[in-house]
Design goal:
heterodimer; A: about 450 residues; mainly alpha; 15 helices; B: about 160 residues; alpha+beta; Immunoglobulin-like; five-stranded mixed sheet; four-stranded antiparallel sheet; 9 strands; elongated
């Protein structure tokens, strides 16, 4: 029996938000310090094209200067316009930082083959990575994440995470090559290096998203989506770096293009989901499960568990892939696919199991909340809408019916209404579980937004 | 946690912990593997004298020119080892590794006395290739135990340019 309920307000004593923001600030500061140190060390010890880097970096410097200027001026303005100027400043500074990191990345990773080859490699990787992101976002059947956050996650993986690991991996690799016996021991050490450093760098992105955007980070499913997006971004830039590197090595032998193409297939087709996306999705799963756990000990355990699985999966591939025999015959093509399936397949299968269970868990709870909301009679969700909203296929059918009736604008209107209704159900779920620190008024605003959208759709 | 949804959440949490346990086992196997190939307590204190790395003429089998750490892609080069600098009771070999970790030239294993005629260890151009591959090459003189390299007695790095 469905009863009318008023979910309790968020815990008024909650100190989650300030502490979360404090942790996020500390993590961000650490990342910035690491990036600055890494850039300086790269410039001094690694970079062989400082002139070009400085030249192309000028635009980034200009954007950051302009952004800082607007930021400083924003506080001289009245409250009404201050917010707009702060947003402008944040956008300019953000683009400037990303551009600067991209410049460093492009020249660090692709200097050997030249910008033309790097551009072709990037263009080749773009559609596959975009497809990967589309699939990953679609996996969240009940409550899709906003594109802007999925793209931010991918951008972090591509730009920030790769920049973070360059110096650490260089130091580790160099010291290992100077001290260890070449062969399996050294290979194992380098596999630990890749697993630990790369997963930590990627995992920081997922953690920051969770700390800063908790309202968009609902549960295990969202964690898997964001984690996979970070992994796909990382895989994008890593693919470009390997393709350009192998192109420059093998082009004098006449098969640079073939070598780059094989890398593209291995990383952007075969390894698109069986690789970085799978590993970092485990970190996301850990953070997503931690988001709903009641005690701090369990939260820490869940996040730690996600990192351990990601590091272990990454390590096992790097350390043991060479043990899998690949014959130099036509059957070798089959073996390459089998190797990926056997070595990374179990990790991906485990992740899919978590995802399916998470979708079911999320779906049941959203259904429960929609039924409760319908029972309140406030009109945001009607009883007859509940079965439609609970089924992705029925929601699609409803949107397609709107498309037939009113064209693309009708489709978009119904889509926005459905999204707002699901947002409301999600908000209720978190509030019921005391997992939210926004005030009860926020929920009422969502309800009013749904009712407004309903009038808009009807009109 | 008491409701049905909390039981589901607990199931997710426990599943994650089970997976993490498997992850710990994988990492432990990795550590054992590392310890097997990088055995502790193997430092003998012996140092092999690598005389230098020189340009190599494969037709004559001779080295020429000065000791260098950087070569052009179309140059071949070889390391010269003074095997007499190593105690005669050890089993040793010498190897070139390219930047992918593949062996691109070796002599041994054998005793230092048995390798006296192999003091020049050239880098091999891979079959079917015109030049050696660019990148960082590592030359090592290794001590072996039960057929497994356990200690590096001497090491040199050489950079092969891409152009």
């Amino acid at each position: 029996m469905i009863t009318s309920t008023h979910p309790p307000a968020a815990d008024p004593e909650s100190k989650l938000r300030p502490s979360r923001y404090g942790i996020a600030l500390a993590v961000s500061a650490l990342v910035i310090v690491a990036l600055i140190a890494s850039s300086i060390l790269n410039y001094v010890f690694l970079d062989t094209v400082p002139g070009r880097t400085s030249l192309y970096g000028l635009l980034a410097v200009a954007l950051i200067t302009l952004g800082t200027f607007i930021l400083v001026r924003a506080y001289n303005r009245d409250r009404a316009t201050r917010r707009v100027h702060l947003i402008r400043a944040a956008v300019l500074i953000g683009i400037g930082v990303l551009l600067w990191l991209l410049v460093i990345d492009v020249f660090l990773y692709t200097q050997s083959a030249g910008p033309g080859v790097a551009a072709v490699c990037a263009l080749a990787c773009l559609p596959t990575t975009a497809f990967g992101l589309w699939v990953v976002r679609r996996m969240d059947r009940n409550h899709k994440e906003p594109w802007r956050l999925v793209l931010v996650a991918a951008a972090w993986g591509a730009i920030v995470a790769t920049s973070l690991v360059v110096w650490g991996e260089t130091v580790w690799e160099s010291s290992a090559q100077h001290t260890l016996v070449p062969g399996p021991g050294l290979d194992t050490s380098l596999a630990f290096m890749a697993g630990i450093l790369e997963e930590l760098a990627k995992g920081l992105a997922v953690l920051l998203l969770f700390l800063v955007m908790r309202n968009e980070f609902d549960d295990v499913v969202d964690g898997i989506v964001y984690g996979a997006a970070v992994g796909l971004g990382f895989n994008f830039l890593e693919s470009i770096s390997y393709m350009t590197n192998l192109y420059s090595i093998f082009s004098p032998e006449g098969f640079g293009g073939v070598a780059a193409g094989i890398q593209w297939y291995g990383r952007q087709v075969l390894g698109l989901f069986f690789g970085h996306a799978t590993y970092t999705a485990y970190i996301g799963a850990g953070v997503g499960i931690a988001r709903q756990l009641p005690s701090m000990r369990m939260k820490v355990m869940a996040i730690g568990a996600g990192f351990i699985i990601a590091i272990a999966g990454h390590f096992s591939w790097d350390a043991w892939a060479t043990f899998f025999p690949i014959q130099n015959t036509l059957f070798g093509l089959v073996e390459i696919h089998l190797r990926t399936l056997i070595m990374t397949g179990p990790f991906t299968a485990g992740l899919i199991a978590l995802l399916l269970f998470g979708i079911r868990y999320e779906g049941q709870n959203l259904l429960d909340q929609m039924q409760k909301e319908a029972a309140t009679g406030q009109g945001a969700i009607l009883p007859q809408e509940v079965p439609i909203l609970a089924s992705p296929w029925q929601r699609l059918r409803q949107r397609l019916q709107a498309l037939n009736r009113a064209g693309p604008s009708g489709y978009l209107r119904v889509s926005r209404l459905q999204t707002a209704q699901l947002d409301l159900a999600m908000e209720r779920w978190h509030r019921e579980r005391k997992e939210i620190d926004t005030p009860l008024e926020a929920e009422q605003q969502l309800r009013e937004k749904v009712i407004q959208l309903r009038h808009w759709v009807a009109a | 946690m008491g409701s049905v949804t909390d039981i589901q959440l607990r199931t997710l949490y426990r599943t994650l912990l089970v997976f993490a346990t498997v992850g710990v086992v994988i990492l432990a196997i990795g550590l054992i593997q590392f310890a097997y190939f990088e055995r502790p307590g193997q430092a003998s204190g012996v140092k092999a004298n690598i005389v230098g790395v020189y340009k190599y003429d494969p037709a004559a089998g001779q080295t020429t020119g000065p000791d260098r750490a950087e070569y052009a892609r179309n140059e071949e080069f070889a390391a010269v080892v003074d095997w007499s600098s190593i105690p005669s009771n050890l089993t040793v070999d010498a190897r070139w590794y390219d930047s992918f970790g593949s062996i691109e030239g070796e002599v041994g294993p054998g005793t230092p006395a048995g390798l006296t005629n192999d003091k020049v260890v050239p880098v091999q151009v891979p079959p079917g290739y015109h030049f050696v591959l660019p990148g960082r090459y590592t030359f090592v003189v290794e001590r072996l135990q039960d057929g497994v390299p356990v200690e590096v007695l001497g090491r040199r790095f050489v950079l092969v340019d891409r152009t």
